[in-house]
Each structure stands twice: as structure tokens, then as C-alpha cells.
Specification:
alpha/beta; Rossmann fold; seven-stranded mixed β-sheet; ABC transporter, putative high-affinity branched-chain amino acid transport substrate-binding-protein; BCAA_transport; transport
């Protein structure tokens, strides 16, 4: 990948040449004797048909590579890169997840263009708008901040270019800010709260006092609200909710209020490096000498980054943990491929990114078309399809994937079997047990065209 004007692009000159000869695409022969498919005529919409008229199609990625979510963003990017490699080579795992896929998507090689969003919505939107205009991307992805996901939802609907969210924990992404052109594979605040809630009650009991650390944007507010709502039904009260800006360098003032709150449990909703800093500083304040810690929406690499065994005994809800390979053969295939390529066990950002691409590819193959409304309608059939954590389906009403939520508990360093054995899996909670009704958060998808 080369960097041009702040963006990463794979072989721009070749793709430009291919777009220039797009008028001949219907009759071109592909490597290996395959013939490029000729698609039924559909009206032009978004980047269709320009984006799929050559021998390649391009995906646009806007992901944080700097800032407080950079570590998680880089992990996501690796998942997308691996998915593209697997799709282009017809990897065995892809064939298990998308049986109609041979190589590429509908016979076309996939290219990536990548920009650093810094977890900032305006930068992500500008990057994707450029990818739409200059690269004719057929699919957008990215986010780690739900504020970015919501902004890209709006861009996708306006430009009629599909968007699959990366990491996005806000209820709003497939709730009040849902769009026809947007989809989400990962779990989110409401699912996390309903999945981990029973474990919190079983572990700490009813009628307890909770203190919250909440990042000041849509993910933080909706996740805290969901956890509060669940625990309130079990007699819990909120004694303080400390709201901080994204990327705060110091949590002393917030933690002083937590320390003096009389809470039994600290529920840290912060994410990325913010969660690392606030947890480390809570230890320094002596908070864990008098209250327990819960992380309702698990942060990839949190246990490693925090260090000192601070996550030992701490419960969290997550999308994926690598030891699921003991129960799910497809998870084992993914883990082995990822570790061979990158040298470490995948975290859930990479898993979510990988599955987002492969599920989109499956739907395009089912639709036999790059025409966005056809792909959207393939998702909206709501058919049961495979994932790395068993069978899942997408709800037609809000485009949310109904999938399990994994409850984990941090291990003591002395109990770790290897350097990445940070968690034990406590429970795999079925998605349909923890997801709200499709209209609960105000989703209205909008038009196809």
C-alpha cells in the first residue's frame, strides 16, 4: 500500500486504468479462464455501476490509527486486510462462511483504500467522501468510535453507498440513527448490559451502589443507560456518573468523586486508551481496595495494556475471545490464519472486521449483483448464516446482526497458560435472549433509492 495525500491506496494507477476501460468489462476474461460476470441493467446509484465495472472493486476504510483508539483501530485494520486476502484467494474459511464465493467477490478482485480517522467523525466522513468520489468504493467501513459510525451511517444513506460498521457499541447505530444502507455485525450497549447483568447480580448481589465512568458521546451515554436500566430492576442505585471527554489525559477529578461516592462497584464504560488510563489511575487512588470493577463493554488489549493483573476477577462482555476455538471450528481456522500472518491471537476488533467484510461478500454473491438495493435485500431476508461464533442472522427491521455475547472473567497472572491467556469464558449468551425489540430504539431505515 502506498500513501498518497494522506491516504493509503493499493495500486491506484492500475485501478484507474481499469476504470478507463470499463466499457469493455462485460467481455473481459479474468486470470484462470474465468469470464467477468455481466450484470442485469439497473439504474445508476451511488458508485454503481462505475465502481464495479472493471476487474476490481474497492472497499474504503476509515479507522483510527492515531489517538486514544489507535491500538484497537490497528487490530480492526488487520481483520479487514486478512478478509480481503482470504476473499481474493478463495480461502477455505471464506468458503465455509460464503459457499458461493470462489475468488474475489463475483469474480472481481478486492482492493482497499485506508485513511486514519483518529476516531473523529469529520475526518472519517471527509475520507470516505473522497473514496466515493475518487475511488468509486462499493463498500465503506471503519469506526471504533460510535460517533464515527453514526456519521458514516448518514453519509452512506445520502450517497447510497453501503456501510458496514466496524466496532460500534452505541445503541443508536442500529437504533435511532439506523439507515437502509448501514449494517452492524458486533454487539453493543444494550446487548452487553442484558448479557452481563445476570452475572453482575449473581456475583455482587442485589441492592448495591454503582459508580460509572462514562465517555461523553453516543456509545458512552447509551451503554451506561442500558446497564443502569438493567441493574435498577435489581434494586441497584447509581451514586455517581462521571462523564469525561474522549481522550482525557487525566481522570483524577472524576476518580476523586468515585472514591468518595460510597459505591460498591465501579462500572467503567470508558474505552480504548481512556479505559486503560482510568483503570490504572483508579488503582492509584486506592479505589479497588473498597469497590469492585466491571467493564461492561470489553476493550481489546485492555488486560495487556493495563498490566499488573488489574483485570483478574473482572467481568466483561465481549464479541469474541480466541479460546472460543475450543468450541467453534471456524474460530480455530480464523485464529490460526490471523496468528500466522500477524504473530498474535486476534482480539474482537479483528474478528468483527473480518466478519463484516465476509458477510457483505456473502450477500453480494447471494444477490449476484453489486447493485446496492439487491445486496441490502439479501441481508434483509434474515436467513441464518454461519459466523465464527455459530449461526447468526441480520434483522430486516434494523440491520443488526443477532449474535451471541460472550461473558469473560479476567485471569490472575499465575493462572495464565500463555502470555495471551488473559480471560476465561464464563458464558456464551444467545443473541436473541439479550437483544431489544427492533423498534425499541426508534429505528426507521429510510429508502433504498
Amino acid at each position: 500500500m502506498t500513501k498518497i495525500n494522506g491516504f493509503y491506496n493499493s495500486d491506484i494507477s492500475r485501478r484507474a486504468m481499469l476504470r478507463g476501460s470499463a466499457g469493455l468489462a462485460g467481455g473481459l476474461a479474468l486470470t484462470g479462464g474465468l469470464t467477468m460476470p455481466v450484470f442485469a441493467d439497473n439504474p445508476a446509484i451511488g458508485t454503481y455501476p462505475a465502481g464495479s465495472s472493471g476487474s476490481t472493486v474497492t472497499f474504503g476504510v476509515a479507522v483510527p490509527r492515531t489517538g486514544t483508539y489507535a491500538v484497537q483501530g490497528e487490530d480492526e485494520l488487520k481483520g479487514w486486510e486478512l478478509a480481503v486476502e482470504h476473499l481474493n484467494t478463495g480461502h477455505e474459511l471464506v468458503k465455509k462462511l460464503s459457499p458461493k464465493t470462489s475468488k474475489g467477490v463475483l469474480g472481481k478482485e478486492i482492493k482497499l483504500v485506508v485513511a486514519d480517522s483518529g476516531a473523529k467523525p469529520n475526518i472519517a466522513v471527509q475520507a470516505q467522501q473522497r473514496f466515493i468520489t475518487e475511488n468509486k468504493v462499493v463498500l465503506m467501513t471503519g469506526s471504533t468510535s460510535s460517533a464515527v459510525a453514526v456519521a458514516l451511517n448518514k453519509l452512506a444513506q445520502r450517497e447510497k453507498v453501503m456501510y458496514v460498521a466496524g466496532i460500534s457499541g452505541s445503541n443508536d447505530t442500529t437504533g435511532k440513527d439506523c439507515v437502509r444502507y448501514g449494517f452492524r455485525q458486533c454487539f453493543y450497549g444494550e446487548m452487553a448490559a442484558n448479557a452481563i447483568g445476570p452475572t453482575i447480580i449473581k456475583t455482587f448481589g442485589k441492592n448495591k451502589k454503582a459508580a460509572y465512568l462514562t465517555p461523553d458521546y453516543t456509545y458512552g451515554h447509551t451503554t451506561t443507560a442500558s446497564v443502569e436500566n438493567y441493574l435498577k430492576g435489581q434494586g441497584w442505585t447509581t451514586v455517581t456518573n462521571q462523564v469525561s471527554p474522549l481522550g482525557a489525559p487525566d481522570y483524577s477529578s472524576y476518580l476523586l468523586n468515585v472514591a468518595n461516592s460510597g459505591a460498591d462497584v465501579l462500572i467503567n464504560v470508558n474505552w480504548g486508551h481512556d479505559c486503560v488510563l482510568s483503570t490504572q489511575q483508579a488503582k492509584q487512588f486506592g479505589i479497588f481496595d473498597k469497590m469492585k470493577l466491571v467493564v461492561p463493554y470489553q476493550v481489546p488489549f485492555l488486560a495487556r495494556e493495563v498490566g499488573g493483573g488489574l483485570l483478574a476477577g473482572v467481568y466483561a462482555a465481549t464479541d469474541y475471545w480466541w479460546t472460543l476455538e475450543e468450541q467453534f471450528p471456524l474460530a480455530k481456522m480464523f485464529n490460526d490464519s490471523f496468528e500466522k500472518k500477524y504473530g498474535y491471537k486476534p482480539e474482537w476488533g479483528a474478528e468483527n472486521a473480518y466478519m463484516g467484510f465476509v458477510h457483505w461478500a456473502r450477500m453480494a454473491e447471494e444477490a449476484k449483483s453489486f447493485y446496492p438495493p439487491d445486496i441490502i435485500k439479501a441481508y434483509e431476508k434474515g436467513e441464518t448464516i454461519p459466523s465464527l461464533v455459530g449461526d447468526v442472522h441480520y434483522r430486516p427491521e434494523d440491520h443488526q446482526c443477532v449474535r451471541p455475547v460472550i461473558i469473560v472473567r479476567g485471569k490472575k497472572p499465575s493462572d495464565m497458560k500463555n502470555k495471551e491467556d488473559y480471560y476465561e469464558i464464563v458464558e456464551i449468551v444467545p443473541g436473541d435472549k439479550v437483544i431489544q425489540k427492533p423498534d425499541a430504539f426508534g429505528c426507521k431505515l429510510g429508502d433504498y433509492t
